[in-house]
Design goal:
This protein is an alpha/beta fold and 485 residues long. Strands 1, 2, 3, 6, 7, 8, 13 and 14 form an eight-stranded mixed sheet that branches. α4 crosses α6. The longest helix has 22 residues. The two termini are 45 Å apart. The structure holds zinc ion (ZN). Zinc ion binds next to α6. Zinc ion (ZN) binds next to α6.
C-alpha cells in the first residue's frame, strides 16, 4: 500500500466518523442500500426498536423519514421538535399542489409498562412465532409500514406519467396524547400545503366472531365518524365546614358523592345512530333467526331491550352517551374535619348527533338537588360523518379484493383519534387497519406483548396498493395503470 492510498483510507475513515457520529442513532446506523432492501417485517422490527413514547418521537420519526427518502419519496418535514416531529413522504413534492391521497399514521406509542409483563422486551422488535413483537407493533407502526410499502410501488409510475393525484404518507406525533403535537398542527398550519383530498388513518380493523351465524367471517369496520369527548367537573364548596362530630345536612363531600351517584345511576337514553342502523343492517344479511330480525330493526328493538343494551359495555357505548367517573378528590385536613371542597371529574362520550348544550342541561337536572356546580373542562367540537362516496367505496372494494369472504361496514369509533381533525375541516377521513386481528392480538394494544402478524403485513400492503390503483384509475379512466412491483 503506497502512501497516498493510506492517506486516502485514513481520509475516508475520518469522513465516515464525522458523518456518522453526530447523528449516531438508528437512522445513521442503516445505510440507504440496507434499508432499501428491507422486507416489511424487518422494517417494522427496526422501527419498533426505536422507542417513541409520546413526547419522544423524533428519533423514530427521522429513521422513518430517511427510509422514505431512500425509497425515492419526497419527504417534507413540517415540524422538527423532539416532541413534535411531523412529516409527509410523497410521490410528488407538495409544492406541485396536486390533490393528495393521504395515508396517516402516528409515530408515537404509549409507555410499555412493567418490563415483567413482556415475553420479549418491549422495544426488542423481536421476530418470533410469525410476528413482530413490541410496543407500537400494532398501534400504529405496522400501518405506517404497510402504507409506505404500498406508496413506494408507484414511484416509477409517478415519474413516467403526470398522475392526477399526489399520494402521501403523513406521519404525525402525539396521537396518543390527543393530537395537539401532530394532527392538530397539520390541520391548523399546513393543510393547504398538504392539500388532502382524503385521509386514510387508523380506526377500525378486521374482527372475527361478530356474526353469530358465521363466526369466522371477518368484519371490517371502516370508521366514518366518532363520538365526541367532553370532560365535566362537578364541584361542591360549602363554607360551613366544621367538626365531624356534628354532621350537617349539606357538606361538600356528602353532596358531591350524592350527585355523583345520581349521575352514575341515571339510565342513559338509547339513541340508535344512522351509522349503527346501517352497519347492523349489513351484518344482519349474514345472520339467522331472531338475531337477524333484531339487527335489521335495531332502531326499534334497541330502545325496547334497554336493560340488555345498557348491561353490555360495548353495545352501550355505541348506543348511549356514556359518563365515567375518572377522578374524585377533596381537600384533606384532620380526620375529624369536614372538608370545604370536593371535586369529581367525568369523562363523557357523546354520540355524534347529541346536542352538547342539551346534554349539559340534562346533567344539571340530574344533580340539581345536591348543590354542586357543573363546569365543562374540555370539549371537542361536533363530529362530522364522512360520506360513503368514492373514497369509501374504493376502500371497500379493495378490502373485498384481498379478503373475498369479508364484510365491510361503516363504523362509529367510540374513542377519539386524529381523523377528527380532518373531518372538522371538511376532509373525508376513513379509519381502518386493513388486517384481520384476532381478539387475543387486539387485547395487546396498549397492553403487554403487543405483536403484529407478518402475513398480515403483506395483505395490508395489497389492500393499500389496490386502493391507490382504484383511485388513480377512477381519475384517469382512459389510461391503464400498470404498477411497478
Ligand atoms: Zn393508534
Amino acid at each position: 500500500m503506497n502512501k497516498s492510498h493510506a492517506a486516502g483510507i485514513w481520509f475516508l475513515a475520518v469522513a465516515w466518523f464525522l458523518v456518522s457520529v453526530p447523528a449516531r442513532g438508528f437512522a445513521a446506523d442503516l445505510a440507504a442500500t440496507e434499508t432499501a432492501a428491507m422486507e416489511p417485517a424487518e422494517l417494522l422490527s427496526t422501527y419498533v426498536q426505536i422507542p417513541s413514547v409520546s413526547g419522544e418521537e423524533k428519533e423514530a420519526g427521522e429513521f422513518f423519514a430517511q427510509y422514505c427518502r431512500d425509497q425515492g419519496l419526497h419527504v417534507h418535514v413540517f415540524t422538527d421538535e423532539p416532541d413534535s416531529y411531523n412529516f409527509a413522504a410523497s410521490l410528488y413534492p407538495l409544492e406541485y399542489g396536486k390533490p393528495n391521497i393521504v395515508f396517516m399514521t402516528h409515530i408515537d406509542v404509549v409507555p410499555p409498562g412493567e418490563p415483567e409483563g413482556w415475553t420479549y422486551p418491549a422495544f426488542s422488535g423481536k421476530i418470533a412465532d410469525g410476528k413482530v413483537w413490541g410496543r407500537g407493533a400494532i398501534d400504529n407502526k405496522a400501518m405506517g409500514v404497510m402504507q409506505v410499502f404500498a406508496i413506494k410501488q408507484f414511484v416509477e409510475l409517478a415519474q413516467e406519467q403526470d398522475l392526477p393525484y399526489n399520494v402521501s404518507l403523513l406521519a404525525v406525533s402525539g396521537e396518543e396524547t390527543g393530537g395537539d403535537k401532530g394532527a392538530r398542527i397539520i390541520t391548523e398550519y399546513f393543510l393547504e400545503e398538504l392539500n388532502p383530498a382524503v385521509v386514510y388513518g387508523e380506526g377500525g380493523a378486521g374482527i372475527t366472531g361478530l356474526i353469530g351465524a358465521a363466526p369466522d367471517k371477518a368484519v371490517f369496520g371502516v370508521e366514518v365518524t366518532q363520538k365526541r369527548r367532553m370532560f365535566l367537573e362537578a364541584s361542591s364548596q360549602v363554607q360551613a365546614s366544621g367538626h365531624g362530630s356534628v354532621p350537617r345536612d349539606h357538606y361538600s363531600t356528602r353532596d358531591l358523592v350524592k350527585a355523583t351517584s345520581a349521575l352514575l345511576e341515571a339510565k342513559p337514553k338509547i339513541t340508535v345512530s344512522p351509522i349503527v342502523i346501517q352497519a347492523l343492517g349489513l351484518l344482519a344479511e349474514h345472520e339467522r333467526g331472531i338475531m337477524k330480525r333484531v339487527m335489521q330493526r335495531i332502531d326499534f328493538y334497541g330502545p325496547l331491550f334497554g336493560r340488555l343494551v345498557r348491561s353490555e359495555p360495548l353495545i352501550a357505548s355505541m348506543l348511549t352517551n356514556t359518563i365515567t367517573l375518572t377522578s374524585l378528590t377533596s381537600s384533606e385536613g384532620a380526620y375529624n374535619q369536614i372538608p370545604s371542597r370536593a371535586r369529581a371529574v367525568f369523562d363523557c362520550r357523546l354520540l355524534p348527533e347529541t346536542d352538547q348544550e342539551a346534554f349539559i342541561a340534562h346533567v344539571k337536572r340530574i344533580v340539581e338537588p345536591y348543590k354542586v356546580e357543573i363546569r365543562v373542562l374540555e370539549s371537542s367540537p361536533a363530529s362530522p360523518v364522512s360520506p360513503q362516496g368514492m373514497f369509501y367505496d374504493a376502500m371497500q372494494e379493495s378490502l373485498y379484493e384481498v379478503f373475498d369472504d369479508a364484510v365491510v361496514v361503516p363504523f362509529m369509533f367510540v374513542a377519539i383519534n386524529d381523523n377528527r381533525f380532518f373531518r372538522r375541516q371538511g376532509i373525508p377521513a376513513y379509519g381502518l387497519l386493513p388486517a384481520i386481528m384476532p381478539e387475543e392480538l387486539m387485547e395487546t394494544i396498549h397492553y403487554f406483548d403487543e405483536r403484529f402478524p407478518i402475513a398480515a403485513l403483506d395483505k395490508g400492503i395489497e389492500v393499500y396498493v389496490s386502493l391507490i390503483t382504484r383511485l388513480l384509475e377512477a381519475a384517469m379512466p382512459a389510461r391503464d395503470i400498470t404498477r411497478d412491483t
